Amino acid sequence: MTQPFHEPVMVEEVLRLLDPVCGGVHIDLTAGGGGHALAVGRRLEPGGSLVMFDRDAEALTVARERVAGLNLRIEAVQANFSDVESQLDALGIGQPDTMLLDLGVSSHQLDSAERGFSFRLDGPLDMRLDASSGETAAQMLARLDALEIERILREHGDERWARRISSAIVRARSSAPICTTLQLADIVRSAVPRSIHDHRIHPATRTFMALRIALNGEMEALEAGLAACIRRLAPGGRIAVLSWQSNEDRRVKREFARLSGICQCEPGLPDCRCGARVDLERLVRKPLEPTPAEISANLRARSAKLRGARKLP
Ligand SMILES: C[S@@+](CC[C@H](N)C(=O)[O-])C[C@H]1O[C@@H](n2cnc3c(N)ncnc32)[C@H](O)[C@@H]1O
Question: What confidence tier does 268 reach under pLDDT thresholds 50, 70, 90?
Fold first, then answer.
């Protein structure tokens, strides 16, 4: 049996939060294999519009094929979702009714050795979401100094052994360039204490995630993209965000709270500096999580957190 490109997670919950209706305009900012786009698109028929973004050309091709049978205006845009406003302007699309961000990488990207995202599969140390442009992870690791690598591992991976790992990377690259995924996974493994070698989670998990996030500017894209999506959404429109790690969910939570009028400043400041204002109504206070049944059918769903908000008219 061939592997599915990507199993979309929490589809029913996404539909419940977004509540897409016939004739509506939906933007899927991270189309991946098009699973969510297809589920939402079916609700827009006939006559609605579905716009799909992805930085990955291969994902867009698959997503486009997946939704091709729908009776809708369909557009597929290879772009960073942080550019959503200019891209929608170019398509002549005004204010969408619903928007979905499903962050991070797809199963297909993780499972493709040649993309270099996996510490389990041997491949070039690439990790670019858009495989046609920009620096690879190997080039980034050759360029950065030890302190900068350590900062990335701490900030984007919460890596406890960041200093040891960054020193080991700098030591290793002085004798030979670090070009492959398994080379890096071995360096990380030998840098951390032996006591954690047999943990359920591979010792290189956090390093690979942190480097991918830094290389692709994922946190910057989330910050700029989320703000742009909320600005662009139609009054009464809905946005949902699926996060896969705590840093992402924290940012989404703060931004939804700030734009629901809840000040995010440090306690004790004489006045509000975060720009809190009432533009949104949160659709859930606590993030929704996959059901145990979904997790047992698709283990990768286990870390998903889903938040949603409605733009006030
Ligand atoms: C978790 S997958 C989405 C899966 C999708 N919801 C589905 O049903 O198959 C995330 C996708 O977002 C894309 N992506 C990540 N960051 C992006 C960005 N800043 N702009 C556009 N696409 C991005 C990745 O290339 C990947 O294909």
Answer: confident
Pocket test for ligand 1, best of 5, 18, 27, 30 (most atoms within 8 A of CB): 30
State the span(s) of the chain assigned CATH 3.40.50.150. Answer: 11-107+218-311
- Residue 81 CB–ligand 1 contact under 6 Å: yes
How many CB atoms neighbour CB 154 within 10 A?
17
105 vs 256: CA distance, rounded Å: 23
Domain range 130-215, its CATH number among 1.20.1560.10, 1.10.150.170, 1.10.760.10, 3.30.70.360: 1.10.150.170
Predicted pLDDT of residue 190: 95
**What residue ranges of the chain are covered by domains with CATH 1.10.150.170?**
130-215
- 104 ligand 1 Cβ < 6 A: yes
pLDDT in tens, 194-224: 887 777 788 999 999 999 999 999 999 999 9
pLDDT of residue 1: 42
Top CATH class of 11-107+218-311 equals alpha beta
Model confidence at 2, pLDDT cuts 50, 70, 90, reads: low
Instruction: Give CA torsion, residues 82, 148, 131, 239, to 10 deg.
Output: -30
Three-state secondary structure along 12-47? HHHHHHHCCCCCCEEEECCCCCCHHHHHHHHHHCCC
Cα dihedral angle (134, 305, 101, 70), rounded to 10 degrees? 120
pTM, rounded to two decimals: 0.96
Q: What residue owns the CA closest to ligand 1's atom 2?
A: 106
Distance 95 CA to ligand 1 centre (A): 21
